[in-house]
Amino acid sequence: ETGVTQSPTHLIKTRGQQVTLRCSSQSGHNTVSWYQQALGQGPQFIFQYYREEENGRGNFPPRFSGLQFPNYSSELNVNALELDDSALYLCASSLGRGQGTEAFFGQGTRLTVV
Amino acid sequence: GQQVMQIPQYQHVQEGEDFTTYCNSSTTLSNIQWYKQRPGGHPVFLIQLVKSGEVKKQKRLTFQFGEAKKNSSLHITATQTTDVGTYFCADQPYSGAGSYQLTFGKGTKLSVIP
Questions:
Q1: Smallest Cβ distance to B43: which of A43, A56, A101?
Q2: CA distance B110 to A35
Q3: How many CA atoms lie within 13 A of A6 on its CB side?
Q4: Which residues pair with B110 in a beta bridge?
Q5: Do residue A102 and residue B94 have CB atoms under 8 angstroms apart?
Q6: How far apart are CA B81 and CA B113, in angstroms?
């Protein structure tokens, strides 16, 4: 196990609703990245948090937002849910944000939007 | 933006046969990380390649980075049923503000027939 935990593991929401996903990073890791993985696809980078600040963002609209807390845990918020938001959401923690750092993934949250 | 192409998308092999997945890019890759995702699981880091022409081995797995740093491969010798899963390569280019984000390929899904 990686020591990265995500909650909840599964979630069903209705289109237009809002959702908050949570991630507890591995002990000592100050960097958290969020990814969206659609069925049959590779993970797509949403954004990264380093020491409580957003530190890089992928090609996702502003309704995807996040937070990182002083203990380095993190939240991913998605507003105005759309059907296409249905996916596995993965959180990955790492020690630092430099090139070559290994990402430790959590088990993911499976979000279904109906 | 940077795109990492992986082939084949699917591979079915008889147990004991070899397996290879290829990762290609039209531009120079920064470094390559390989991940394995078991069915229903999350990506798990396998290895990182940084140098042009680098070759690394892990038991039955051999990883190569091309001389021009535009391709990489993962070769598994004598596959076992425990090798089942999807194998992803990921580039890690600089994305600004001190951040290096992982850009994943779509993966190669390996099935092993006992």
A1: A43
A2: 22
A3: 29
A4: B11, B85
A5: no
A6: 7
- Contact with chain A for residue B24, Cβ under 8 A: no
For residue B75, which of B96, B98, B55, B104 has the smallest C-alpha distance? B55
Dihedral in degrees, nearest 10, Cα atoms A60, B26, B10, A106: -40
Query: β-pairing, B108-113 with B10-14?
Result: parallel
pLDDT per residue over A10-58, tens digit each? 999 999 999 999 999 998 899 999 999 999 999 999 999 998 999 889 9
Q: Give the three-state DSSP class for A5.
A: strand
Distances from the Cα of A61 to the Cαs of A46, B5, B43, B44, B78, in angstroms? 9, 24, 24, 27, 44
Q: Tokens 């850009």 sit at which residue?
A: B103
